[in-house]
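During the second half of the funding period, the structural biology subgroup turned its attention to how the target accommodates small molecules. The most pressing case was nicotinamide-adenine-dinucleotide, which had performed well in the primary screen but for which no bound structure existed. We therefore specified the complex as follows and requested a full 3D prediction, including the ligand pose.
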Amino acid sequence: MSISSLQDKVAIITGCSSGIGLATTRLFLERGASVFGIDIGAQPQKLAEDFSTFTFYQTNLTESQAAEHAVAKCIGKHNRIDILVNCAGVSDGFSSADTIHDEELEKVMAINLTVPIHLMKACLPAMKEQKSGTIVNVASKASISGACSGLAYTASKHGLVGATKNVAWRFHQEGIRCNAVLPGGVPTNIASSVQMEHFDSAGFNAFFPVIQLHVSKDSEGAPVPIIGADDVARGIAFLSSDESKMINGAMIPIDNAWSTI
Ligand SMILES: NC(=O)c1ccc[n+]([C@@H]2O[C@H](COP(=O)([O-])OP(=O)(O)OC[C@H]3O[C@@H](n4cnc5c(N)ncnc54)[C@H](O)[C@@H]3O)[C@@H](O)[C@H]2O)c1
């Protein structure tokens, strides 16, 4: 049995088509889980070819009832849900309180905070009935810092750790755990989610020095992220496995000490 085995667990993973969600889905499948992957984007073709234990469900999770429908599909197929990983997310354009547009605020809050809450709500009846279940929310360094992202992303990720703690305490006597990982900068496709018409260069310039403290630099001084999607996936797998069975309500930074400042 491998470290942090997920053998025969049934996991829902959102954002499975790219970045951290894709790396997590592959790791879970390699460790024996059946994964019900959800994304607005296209199916990750290689995973579908490599693993018969992978099911893909394409939906825009911000649409009305989308979370409930997705969870019902998973239960229809597997009859249970052992693990929920809330990974789908988007970035903001570094807007501050003086520049933020409602459209960006609503989009970022909906995907990064409201959708994870809807999915937890939809999964909890099955987890309560089973008297077991593990939820991992993908938060961020921006969950504990006001100095590395825009207002919308920072508020959404602060909100997500509040939701994580609330769920952890509320259901800790029912065999259900809820934790969060707080990654540092990871090279993924998240920059493509920025609405460039709302990019705030003054905001970006205020936050960039803090980001630079964390990244490495190439020979020309350009920033190079040091945390890989696989590093975050391993943290999520640990928190999802029975190895962490007494870890509940924890915020685990995966950022090589960036969280200390
Ligand atoms: N990349 C980083 O530096 C970093 C750092 C800290 C936290 N995070 C968090 O990690 C998580 C994953 O991001 P990533 O960096 O892998 O980005 P990514 O863009 O590579 O992946 C995000 C995935 O979420 C999906 N998604 C977005 N909106 C959706 C919707 N409405 N419905 C369904 N799926 C949707 C996208 O299609 C995409 O496949 C996010 O929550 C992000 O905030 C990322």
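Two results from this model are relevant to the next phase. The chain has one domain: 10-260. Residues 93 and 196 are 7 Å apart (CA to CA).
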